[in-house]
Design goal:
Radius of gyration of chain B: 28 Å
Number of helices of chain A: 2
Radius of gyration of chain A: 32 Å
Strand content of chain A: 15-25%
Strand content of chain B: 5-15%
Shape of chain A: rod-shaped
Number of strands of chain A: 5
Number of strands of chain B: 7
Strand order of the largest sheet of chain B: 1-2-3-7-4-6-5
Shape of chain B: elongated
Number of domains of chain A: 2
Oligomer: heterodimer
CATH topology of the largest domain in chain B: Rossmann fold
Helix content of chain B: 55-70%
Order of helices and strands of chain A: EHHEEEE
Number of helices of chain B: 11
Distance between the termini of chain A: 28 Å
Largest sheet of chain B: 7 strands, mixed
Distance between the termini of chain B: 88 Å
Largest sheet of chain A: 3 strands, antiparallel
CATH class of the largest domain in chain B: Alpha Beta
Order of helices and strands of chain B: HHHHHHHEEEHEEHEHHE
Largest interface: A-B, 35 and 40 residues
């Protein structure tokens, strides 16, 4: 099961105002930096550019954070398998789980190999494919 | 030493108004972070909690919906069960007084019995067409829905309390414990489907071991939903017991073990209790470990009964644990857990050979929920 839900958010006007002010200031700072470099004042230029770019990045990040977001709920279920075993010849058959299955249930199905009605549910399980870590403690 | 002239060079010139504004604003931001840094941090944490509460709400609603759907599908009720399910979600049981702990186990057992009877009676009313196995499965589905509702409400309570009081410490504690609650809620959420469909869950590992041992032998039903079979193993006689399946059931294994020990007048050489055990991070799912003591989880009533009786008759109690993550306990059983069963049986046989003599009587108890596991 995997659910994707849109999470509507109302952006606070106060936060929006702050974001606008910081955006304007960061752009002004970048302008000042370029202007300072043009006047061969590299010390001031670096300072203003660093401040401007940093503020611009932070502002953009905050703006992205406040946008309408998609929430993905990680509840993906792995398929559940049922193993049918013949008690006489040992034939095994794996199929998807069906409602009413339980471990050690005697089935009415005939064994495809020996044609006897000796099929039993041997196991019901889900297989999880885990990512193998190459380094680390485990 | 910096001269005044050198310091003044760091400041913008008087004719550059924009530079002055920038300097003042950045200084203001610096001061604001100095005084309100914690408040900003709190806002970020509150945002995290809000997102998690939103997820929890979805899980809670899914749980409620799953319970209603299962009741309608299986129980075929005459009236819409929604109102009854909503009432059920708010159900609570108050623990007994522990100020005077003497006799608390018996009072707790009585409370649990009453709660179980009440749950079953309510489910029967909601789902009149359901058989006993389905009643048990529906009861467990509703219990999962209740647990999801409780987790959602608790987190929401502390979030709102922290927000109301503007307490950094309340918000901080909620944010720190949140990953554990989310993990538990996700486990419950994935367990819903298992209970609805009657699939074996990770908690049933012990019951599965017992089921495999007693498979071809005659079974008798003993104390509350427990089945026992007399199984010859390695020249000894083993009383193998588990909760009756394939419905969702944990039974009262403690009472059953107590009865078997008393019926045999304590002439039991060894008791082996097998159960699922929460693994530590880094350990593998399905790892098997041996130890001493009564490996029975839950409200401790059964554990207490076995400890008391084992002490009375001086019966050594060994434990075998199958390790699994909290998320796997109520989710459909993983292949690794299923594969561990044979290894557990080998360990049981080795323990019996090493610790007992031929002709001895032993008890093998497979603990856990028998949902999806016959016998």
């Amino acid at each position: 099961m995997e659910a994707t839900v849109s999470m509507a958010r109302r952006i606070s006007p106060f936060l929006l105002a702050i974001l606008m002010i910081t955006l304007v200031l960061s752009l002004a700072s970048i302008y000042e930096g370029i202007d300072a470099y043009a006047k061969n004042d590299s010390a001031s230029g670096s300072l203003y550019l660093t401040m401007g770019v940093t503020t611009l990045i932070i502002t953009t990040y905050l703006w992205l954070q406040t946008r309408r977001r998609m929430l993905r709920l990680s509840m993906r279920m792995q398929p559940i398998n049922t193993t049918l075993e013949c008690q006489k010849c040992g034939f095994k058959n794996v199929r998807e789980f069906q409602r009413g299955d339980y471990v050690f249930k005697h089935m009415e199905d005939q064994c495809p190999k020996c044609n006897e009605k000796t099929m039993t549910i041997g196991s019901i399980f889900r297989e999880v494919k885990e990512k193998v870590k190459e380094a680390g403690y485990s | 030493m910096l001269t005044i002239q050198q310091v003044s060079q760091l400041l913008p010139s008087a004719d550059n108004l924009l530079s002055w504004i920038l300097q003042i604003v950045f200084l203001a931001i610096f001061v604001a972070f100095m005084f309100y840094g914690q408040r900003f941090q709190m806002l970020i944490w509150m945002r995290d909690i809000e997102n998690s509460i939103f997820k929890l709400k979805i899980m809670r609603d899914e749980g409620r919906k799953a319970a209603i759907t299962a009741i309608n599908e299986i129980g075929k009720p005459q009236v819409d069960p929604t109102a009854q399910v909503d009432r059920f979600l708010e159900y609570f049981a108050l623990p007994p007084v522990d100020l005077d702990p003497a006799g608390i186990i018996w009072r707790l057992e009585h409370l649990l019995d009453v709660a179980d009877a009440r749950f079953k009676a309510d489910v029967r009313l909601m789902a009149p067409q359901a058989d006993e196995t389905q009643i048990n499965n529906l009861e467990n589905t509703l219990e999962v829905a209740i647990d999801l509702n409780i987790i959602y409400k608790i987190i929401r309570h502390f979030y709102l309390l922290g927000k109301k009081t503007q307490s950094l410490y309340i918000i901080m504690q909620v944010q720190m414990i949140l990953p554990l609650f989310m993990k538990e809620a996700e486990a419950y959420s994935s367990g819903l489907k298992a209970f609805q469909l009657g699939q074996p869950i990770g908690d049933g590992a012990g019951a599965l071991v017992a089921a495999k041992l007693m498979r071809d032998y005659e079974k008798t039903k003993v104390e509350k939903d427990i089945v026992v079979a007399k199984v010859p193993i390695e020249g000894r006689t083993a009383y193998v017991l588990k909760a009756e399946g394939p419905g969702a059931n944990v039974g009262k294994p403690g009472e059953a073990i107590k009865q078997i020990m008393e019926q045999n007048e304590g002439k039991i050489s060894l008791a082996i209790v097998i159960d699922a055990l929460g693994k530590l991070e880094g350990e593998k799912t399905g790892e098997v470990a041996e130890g001493l003591g009564v490996a029975i989880g839950g409200p401790q009533v059964d554990k207490y009964k076995v400890e008391e009786t084992a002490l009375k008759y001086k019966v050594p109690v060994n434990a075998i644990a199958i390790k699994e993550d909290i998320g796997d306990v109520i989710s459909p059983m993983r292949k690794e857990i299923f594969d561990a069963v044979d290894s557990v049986i080998e360990r049981i046989k080795r323990l019996i050979r090493e610790r007992t003599k031929e002709g001895d009587f032993i008890i093998i108890a497979g603990i856990g929920n028998s949902i999806g596991i016959g016998q």
